[in-house]
Specification:
With 141 residues, this protein is mainly α. The chain has a domain of 57 residues. Helices cover 38% and strands 0% of the residues.
Length: 141
């Protein structure tokens, strides 16, 4: 499986490089203003679009095939109902577990909560505003 991961990585990097080497749809607009003659290209007068697009297509097919195979292989390996959970945690396997910090129980925590305060009787009413407002006195200095 290691060799498949290496091939997968090489295909992914090659695909990124090939995609970045391709010209965009608006790249030919600059050639009308004196830029880039076809005779000076590495891939000839037809350009690199045919070679790069075909290479990208085949690399994408290989990339997707390897992806599907690796997913199928992982699913097939873990589909056993009595399989033990993975104990290899990699780097996290060497980290010590923290001791549990359960708070000590206090006697107050073990006692029952006090009864709720009774509500005010319904026949008493609280005035919403002050019935006798007093005017404010100006402060003299």
């Amino acid at each position: 499986m290691l060799i498949l991961n290496v091939i997968y990585l090489i295909v992914a990097v090659a695909m990124v490089v090939l995609i970045l080497m391709q010209r965009g749809a608006g790249a030919t607009a600059g050639s009308g203003f004196g830029g880039g003659g076809a005779s000076g290209t590495v891939f000839g007068s037809r350009g690199s679009s045919n070679f790069l697009s075909k290479s990208t297509k085949y690399l994408a097919i290989i990339f997707m095939s390897i992806s599907l195979f690796m997913a199928w292989n992982v699913k097939r390996g873990t589909s056993q109902p009595n399989a033990a959970p993975a104990s290899d945690l990699g780097v996290m396997g060497s980290v010590p577990t923290a001791p549990s910090t359960t708070p000590a129980t206090t006697p107050a925590a073990n006692q029952a909560a006090p009864a709720a305060t009774p509500a005010a009787p319904a026949n008493q009413s609280v005035p919403a505003t002050n019935a006798n407002p007093q005017p404010e006195q100006p402060v003299k200095n």
